[in-house]
Fold these 2 entries.
Entry 1:
Amino acid sequence: MPSSVTFSPPKPKFRQLRVFAFDPSLNLELEAATINQLTLNIPWEDLNPGPVGEYLEVVDVDPPSNMFYSPLDLDNKYLLVQDGLSPSEGTPQFHQQMVYAVASRTIANFERALSRPVLWSPREVDGQNVYVPRLRLYPHALREANAYYSPLKKAILFGYFPAPVDKDSKILPGGIVFTCLSHDIISHEVTHALLDGIHPNFNTPSNADVLALHEAFADIVALFQHFSYPLVLHHQIARTRGNLSSDNLLAELAQQFGQALGNRRALRSAIGQKPDPSALPKTLEPHQRGSILVAAVFDAFLTVYNHRIADLLRIATGGTGILNPGAIHPDLVTRMAEEAARIAQHLLTMCIRALDYAPVVDITFGEYLRALITADYDVSPSDPDGYRIALMESFRRYGIYPDNVRSLSEESLLWRPPSAGGEVISLFFSSPTILQQMQNYETTNRSSVLREQVDEEGRSPDLRQRLYESSSTYANLFQDWLKTDLLAYLKSILGMKDDDLAKFEDSLRLVLWNPTPSIVRFPNGLPFKVNSVRLAYRVSQSQYSQPDLVVEVSQARRGYIDPQTQAKVDLGQIPPPPAEFLFRGGVTFLISLESGKVRYVIGKSVTSERRLEALRRYILEGGQVPSLQATYFGDPFRNGLRENAEPFELFALLHRDEMKGGQE
Ligand SMILES: [Zn+2]
């Protein structure tokens, strides 16, 4: 008798889903229509109708028209065999598929760059942080020309609106424009949410660069994502004959949306801006200022790309490098596309990994450049393709410089290894019991962090929650270490006296043990808070990965516009009146888990009078952006720089403002 053996097939690695490559408007152009439908590979997960998965939950209620669209079941066998629904403007369930697919792809790009799962920023309930498993996506949330990430709701709200009547526009007058059908709008908004998950303080505009960086970063991710679609890439390389500096769809963002706002073109483009170092100081609106950073990064892409294809052009042209008129050979297109895809992926990875090398608050473009250079140096010290030189050169041309750096050379831009205080704290972290506990964090979470291992074991939905909880536990542990163990170590083992301790704190740019009365104490009485502990892997080309622990400490000082009041409060001469603004600071430590050595200390000191004065000026000038002036700086209850600030929808305001700008 033959015995039967049960067989269950392995789960697939990917799910294929069809989407618009750009947005529905491209279907109206004969040439672009051929590439406007893509099939995306999305990491496989079992889904509930919605779709609802591990990271995302699509909720299709439409409050403006009091409708609820029945949720799409992507695990339905008919949909599984045909890569989901075909792209359609008129089918709400396709809209659900589109936001799920593009958002998942954006998340996958982040996880690939960071080599760890992403977490959404936690929800604050009664002063406690609560884990947020899923970001909610509402494809039809608003009847207006807007789409935004809501840090309060942990959701993305997409709007829809009738296109204005414009005889030159490609959009049917009165036709409905759905922001949830724009690839770029979806990946832009998801990137805001991903950035918020890593750096919640980047929502607080303490200088002109902070919100501009949020916008620029979201655009950079959306742009470079275009280059990961081979069909689109091939088509555009063939059309431009490899010249990506000329007008092309890869470098443009949100075509239909831009046209619907009366721009007659894409919402934003990364090319076509001439580098002008004098533009930056004059450009303060966050999107416009951000577009300078986007252009600088895209320029670096073009430099590396042109350099890398120079030999291909010479081979193809018998040495002249000058192409004959007409279409170029398909093999040449393929090789150029390979180069473009590889370079875009490298720069995207650099831009994402740099977030682990960024200050915890008050980031500037210049500091982001330093983070980019250092993050890349750590994985590729020799820079064979010249990414870092290209970035430094293009940032220089756009007038983006860090403070306190003498020249834009690699040596001066790399974050410095720890100062004297860093060497001392390295001794503490490399002491056997402390190092062992830090290494335990890595071994406990390795299976949650490294996707390959996770895949072999099968992903379980609570892996990310375990990672979140473990990070919170370790944040508390670090807090205790900084409060007591470190102090005891410095005093008893190193024999430090009060003077030495003050110098030590100074050199780390932290106030740990002797806060002045103006330093804000957290509910537990401490003048600082460890708000994040996470793993950063340096995966080099040899695929050997070295783990670092990224530990972020933040603190705040009560700020007053009048320097004399400030001085009196700082010195304890008067009881502190309610703060007029909060002056935030903090330190990012990157600690090697092999040795316990602190590799970098990236600090923004709350004792820096120079930074304090800069913030005063920025507030007095109202952020120099009219909408921010009224809403952010004008209303004390909504002001994120205030103590006990009431939260409000920052991105709704920012994006709505930009849309108005487009209609003028
Ligand atoms: Zn945005």
Entry 2:
Amino acid sequence: MATITKEYINGLITTVQNLYLSDDIPWMIGYSGGKDSTAAVQLVWMAIERLPVELRKKPIHIMNTDTLVESPVVSKWVEKSLDAMREMAKEKQVPFIPEKLIPDFNDTFWVNLIGRGYPFPRMKYRWCTDRLKIKPVNNFIKNKIAEHGEIILVLGTRKQESSRRNRTMTTLEKKRVRELLSPNPTLANELVFSPLETWSNDDVWVFLMQYKNPWGYSNMDLMTMYRGATADNECPLMVDKSMPSCGKSRFGCWVCTMVENDKSMEAMIANDEEKEWMTPLLEFRNKFGNPEGDRERRSFRRMHGNLQGNYGKLFHGPYKKEVREAWLKELLEIQQDINLNGPEEFSTLKLIRIEELRAIRRIWVQEKHEFCDSVPTIYKEVTGMEFDDPDWICFDNFGSEEWKILQSVCSRLYGEEELAFEMMYNLVDIENRAQGLNARKGILNDIEKAIGRTFYMNEEDATAYYSDRMNRKKQMGGKYNEKFLDYISEEDSEVEDVEE
Ligand code: SF4
């Protein structure tokens, strides 16, 4: 543990300055807006500001990952902080460059959950951290490494955060080739500097309270944000998958289902009447993240329509069309309500961006063959506005009218067959798209695949089909799914529902 005295901080500042001046390798600092990363940025800032202007040559990128599903209050806080840094850096002639890193719009939380229908993130299927946090940072860092050959990453991580963190940091410390700089196990040419490695929680607060924030932000307000929260963890800059879930943190995503209840958001609402407007967010997250009945909300086939299972039951895959549509509508309604009736500063808050809505539209229409094209309809229904999508190209022979007719015909003729309508709209759409001679290439293959995905009457029929197939393979001495066929009894085993 460090003791935060003036001498100690001055000594640390000199260490930071020496390291900064020792080479030309650019620096990056992870900044989440939380206390640890604020302390790290503040310490480096103080060190650089005390150097003569002509020595402040190396750029220092302050990286903040915005998952696009950050808690709105924290997100606003961070946004204002980055703006303040930008202004102050210019004024004080310090080489800090704030960078907001966001996920690819085709790979955001909503595009995967509502668009593709991925099951909400859970322990065995945590698909979000990599897409929302790790990839944007790694892409940014990789580009900088390609440009400069090497980079130094400054993190506010501390050994006392957890025993796991302590173990990892100590192991990497032993692999140091340069003093104070640990290698990154997953990214070559990246060295990690953790100036707060020996600090305790209290040390961080003592430092933040004793030293004025150099970009003119209020560390006192930061403390107020923490006060009342039941979870005091901080979501660090995620650089690899071995890091634990960041969901317990108040600086994590409001949609996080990795924790049973979003304690920090609950606390924020409970402790502050002004935050009551966030209650619908919490309720919505509890709804889509409810494991009870989740199986029934999802198709009994995998993402690409194939069957798979264990313990005599099929895995359930993506969310069904009606579930995805209902969630999109509800999300837009919450957004609309906050914009109109919430606090003034959130009157333009976007819970889901227009780019994400466009990506969802493309997945539904082009990949899932849902030619009724419901995104613009839902959008207009909720907001009263036309959906803006200038690059949209479509075949308009079939639309929502034809969709309804086909649906009613299918239910009249094949009422018993659960997937008959899906088979029909898939076939109609495949044929509709293959209008030119060139586009007809591969059409038979596509038709065959569509039929292969939808020829079961219902889940029971599909289970029997899959079971027969496995039995045949077993009898022929081939490789088969033992976990599905040779299970002991259904009661003894829990059905594993998602892919690991
Ligand atoms: S906070 Fe939760 S939802 Fe967000 S990336 Fe981390 S685990 Fe996923």
